[in-house]
Amino acid sequence: MFAVIETGGKQYFVSPKTRIHVEKLPQELGKEVVFDNVLLVGGEVSPKIGKPYIPGSKVTGKIVKVGRERKIRIFKYKSKVRYRRRKGHRQNFTEVEIENII
Hints:
Elements: E1 2-7, E2 10-14, E3 19-23, E4 32-35, E5 38-42, E6 48-49, E7 59-68, E8 72-78, E9 83-89, E10 92-101
Antiparallel strand pairs: 1-2, 1-5, 3-10, 4-7, 5-6, 7-10, 8-9
């Protein structure tokens, strides 16, 4: 069984026992998370497609890890005008293990 969920403005293809990195969630480590915005559910039978979401369906998961991604370096450069700008950014994330698709 698989599903496509939406969280943090992004869409994720999930199935039970998979781990995904999502935008930082307000819950704590070890807590259960419920994703209500389910766009598609498929598996043994033909897939169900929402318009935009499937009513009554949800995906549950457990928070496994909270951390920060690797640093992304941003460098702007324009030739012949001595223009150089350097920035860096580390995005916060929450790692969720999918437990059940309802």
